[in-house]
Design a protein that fits this description.
Blueprint (H helix, E strand, L loop, with lengths): L10 H5 L21 E3 L1 H7 L3 E7 L9 H14 L4 E5 L3 H13 L2 E7 L5 H9 L3 E5 L3 H14 L3 E2 L5 H7 L1 H9 L4 E5 L4 H15 L8 E7 L4 H4 L21 H10 L3 E5 L1 H15 L8 H12 L2 H4 L6 E7 L7 H7 L10 H6 L6
Helix pairs in contact: 3-4, 3-7, 4-5, 7-9, 8-9, 9-11, 12-13
The protein binds ligand F0G.
Length: 361
């Protein structure tokens, strides 16, 4: 008999040694994780001679975002504890992931969204997976306050990233990167600040376990109109076209600052224009289509390299920079259409079509 290939079994099965699970934990998985780490050769040429640039394409998770890494843990642990229902506030991706994993677990899922500020793809996911979806006339921060109150009063488990199991699951992203190499710099968008917290925890734990020798410098990026950590105070009315990170008072604010300070990194902000430029570049030059919020990490690297951040620190070897691209571009088709040239309609004739085709030389 021929040997069978070892099948990938998802985040919990792959990293259970590092996760708070036991044989009793019912593993609810959609085989999340194991996402591509793509070397961005063309972007490197454009950005800096001093770096090797890698894109961790988290949009390739089952529901199209990094949230699945945390959700497999949060839902499995909720199931283990006998929960019948879960709830979250969301800018979209958390709700898509919570709805999918709840469907798989046979649990009820309630999601509260800021009205009118959810990318279309994400909304379709929550609806299709059978969640109870409610939009509130308020922003994410207000929605999160309400779900916290509900979870405190009713037998419903909160699955936002203040649920520690979410952070546990999400830290596996660091482990995956370190299977290839230990990055010198780790760039990541910051919204509610759970993911930067999770990655930093993962790196530190991997170092303690003797799996890596050094730690990366953590570089977090917020959108200019929603940059409470950069500005040092909560933003009452956050605004950015990167709706996923349209957050004015991040729940893991302190932990994000700790990741920044312990790693001697920084948390900076990028404008919507810079986000859109990076969003288009990743798709057009590297074939990696991410959503606008994800591109905040790449936009941040572009900004820093213009300020000679990497050349000032350049050693003998090129620095390895990993950008976390947190969600798939298909999540937000409206934005893609808005930033692209309008579609040209022509007669179905060869001559007509070739008038519009410019062949590369
Ligand atoms: N990128 C994407 C695509 C996101 O959906 C989020 C957060 C972030 C980055 C920021 O991550 O919050 O851990 O700092 N989305 C949450 C949601 C808030 O409800 O889907 P963070």
């Amino acid at each position: 008999m021929t040997e069978r290939a070892q099948l990938y079994k998802g985040v919990i099965e792959s990293w259970k040694k590092y996760l708070p699970v036991s044989k009793k934990t019912p593993v609810i998985t959609l085989f999340e994780g194991n996402t591509p780490l793509v070397r961005a050769f063309k972007l490197e040429k454009k950005i800096s001679r001093d770096i090797e640039l890698y894109l961790k394409y988290e949009g390739m998770n089952p529901t199209g975002s990094f949230k699945d890494r945390g959700m497999t843990m949060a839902i499995s642990k909720a199931k283990e504890a006998g929960a019948k229902a879960v709830i979250c506030a969301s800018t979209g991706n958390t709700s898509a992931s919570a709805a999918a994993y709840s469907a798989r677990a046979g649990m009820q899922c309630i999601v509260i969204l800021p009205a009118g500020k959810i990318a279309l793809g994400k909304l379709t996911q929550a609806l299709m997976h059978g969640a109870t979806v409610l939009a509130v006339n308020g922003n994410f921060d207000e929605a999160l306050n309400i779900v916290k109150e509900i979870a405190a009063k009713y037998p419903i488990t909160l699955v936002n990233s203040i649920n520690p199991y979410r952070i546990e699951g999400q830290k596996t992203g660091s482990f995956e990167i370190c299977r290839h190499f230990t990055p010198d710099y780790h760039a990541i968008p910051v919204g509610n600040a759970g993911n930067i917290t999770a990655y930093w925890k993962g790196y530190k734990e991997f170092k303690t376990a003797g799996q890596i020798k050094s730690l990366p410098v953590m570089l977090g990026f917020q959108a200019e109109g929603a940059a409470p950590i950069v500005r040092g105070y909560p933003i009452e009315k956050p605004e950015t076209l990167a709706t996923a990170i349209r957050i004015g008072n991040p729940a893991s604010w302190k932990q994000a600052e700790a990741a920044r300070d312990e790693s001697r990194g920084l948390i900076d902000m990028v404008s919507d224009e810079e986000i859109v430029a990076a969003y288009k570049m990743a798709a057009a030059f590297e074939g990696v289509y991410c959503e606008p919020a994800s591109a905040a990490s790449l936009a941040g690297i572009l900004k820093l390299s213009k300020q000679k951040y990497f050349s000032k620190r350049a050693g003998s070897k090129k620095a390895k920079v990993v950008c976390i691209l947190t969600g798939h571009g298909l999540k937000d088709p409206d934005r893609a259409i808005k930033v692209s040239a309008p579609l040209v309609t022509v007669k179905p004739e060869l001559k007509e079509i070739m008038k519009h085709v410019r062949l590369a030389r």
